[in-house]
Specification:
The chain is α/β, with parallel strands linked by helices and 98 residues long. It has helices at residues 4-14, 30-38, 55-59, 63-72, 88-97; strands at residues 18-19, 25-28, 42-43, 48-53, 74-79.
Length: 98
C-alpha cells in the first residue's frame, strides 16, 4: 500500500502528476486526497485509491468535492468510525462518480 508521502516523493522524483502506483494501492485521508487533487494528480486506471476518514469529515463533502475525488481516481470512500449519513445530493454525486 503506497503512502501519501511516497506519492509526493513520486511526484517530486518524476516531475509528473500522472501516477502509476507500483503496488496499485493507496489509502489516503480526505485531506491528503484533496491536496493531491489540488496538485492535479491523477492515478492510473488500474490503481485502487481508497479514502479512509471519519464519518463527519466525509459527510461534510459537497457534490463538487465528490466529483473532484472522481477526477483524482478515487475508487472507495470509507468511514472508519461509524456509518455514514449522506443527503440525496451526496448520494447522487457518489453514484455519478462510480
Amino acid at each position: 500500500m503506497t503512502s501519501y508521502s511516497e506519492i509526493l516523493a513520486l511526484i517530486t522524483s518524476t516531475g509528473s502528476t500522472t501516477i502509476d502506483l507500483g503496488d496499485d494501492k493507496a489509502s489516503l485521508s480526505l485531506a491528503e486526497a484533496q491536496a493531491l487533487a489540488t496538485l492535479g494528480v491523477t492515478f492510473a486506471a488500474d490503481d485502487d485509491v481508497a479514502i479512509a476518514d471519519t464519518a463527519d469529515t466525509i459527510e461534510a463533502l459537497t457534490a463538487s468535492d465528490i466529483a473532484t475525488l472522481k477526477t483524482l481516481g478515487v475508487s472507495e470512500v470509507l468511514a472508519n468510525d461509524r456509518a455514514l449519513v449522506l443527503d440525496i445530493a451526496q448520494i447522487n454525486a457518489f453514484a455519478a462518480a462510480d
